[in-house]
Amino acid sequence: PFPPPFHFPAETALKGIDFQTRDLEKRHVIEICPFRAWELVLHHQKDYSIANAINLGVVSDVAYDEEQSIADFFLSQCQDLSQLPFRSARKKTYAKALARDVPFSERYFPPVSLDTSKAVEPEGDTQLFYAYNKSSIIVSWKGTSSGTDGITDGTFRPVESETCETKTQCTDLLPAGKVHEGFWEAYNLLKIKYPEEVNNLLDKIEGKDLYVAGHSLGGALALIHATELKTHNPLLYTYGMPRTFTRDAVLQLASITHFRHVNDTDPVPGVPPEANVDNAFYDLWGPIGTTLGALWSTVELSAYQAIKWGDCYWHHGNPVIFLTATQ
Description:
Blueprint: E1 36-40, H1 50-62, H2 67-75, E2 86-89, E3 92-96, E4 99-103, E5 112-115, E6 127-132, E7 136-141, H3 147-154, E8 158-160, E9 178-180, H4 181-193, H5 195-205, E10 209-215, H6 217-228, E11 235-239, E12 245-246, H7 247-250, E13 257-263, H8 287-301, E14 313-314, E15 318-322
Parallel strand pairs: 7-10, 10-11, 11-13, 13-15
Antiparallel strand pairs: 1-4, 2-3, 5-6, 6-7, 8-9, 12-14
Helix pairs in contact: 3-4, 4-6
């Protein structure tokens, strides 16, 4: 609703030019400065891109912000050409985005943030935001940041992705293989709470390059989302994500370009273990069965190196590993 502050500084903006009568007999040249804005440098390609890694890492970090701060990144920082968009904490900058200036008409539109804990009927703690311009759309899922998220992470029973559970929608996401129950329920909860907004997102994807990103739990949700949107050719970059699908499911996802970043000794990519953790206890006595199943899975996991048979949890994507080198 207001002109961009970078092009209209408060001390000089919109004050006009005064002309005296004698000035009308002179020729005047007025230079018009075109409006510009920052666009994140992203390459929609199958090869790895460090620019993608940096910028999709930045937006994965932005996903942890409150709605107003997310809007500030795209509507203020990306319209201030005096400095690159950046991330900061305690008044210190710790990351800068890679950006190029583009015509103002190609700027980012106001981002849309969805949070199930702030829905009309609040439930769970699943969040994403998406930002878009004329040519591309970025979807970023928030990772673990609360006790509710911790429960989601720990509900690691593999379940059929096309079944109808109490809190999930019926879907034919994959005809074979299984998905982490906690991630699957968290993902579908957002679709249940925001059906209209999710449909709007699908409409905006048409004709644009699609980028999906997330850190930790957000990476798992991003992979599920990319799976559902695979006909739209998503480019997926994740950071420190856990295993999400079992082997039979992962084998069907070869068409999705995914670069999975692992940071040195981060334990999160090691869970759930590469093992078949399903068992019959999960199907018994409702919630008690869930508890018994989880306990028995823990017993099995103590020897999981010996039980890597069946439909085990697998990672998806091309690993990009950052190691600390010492001498």
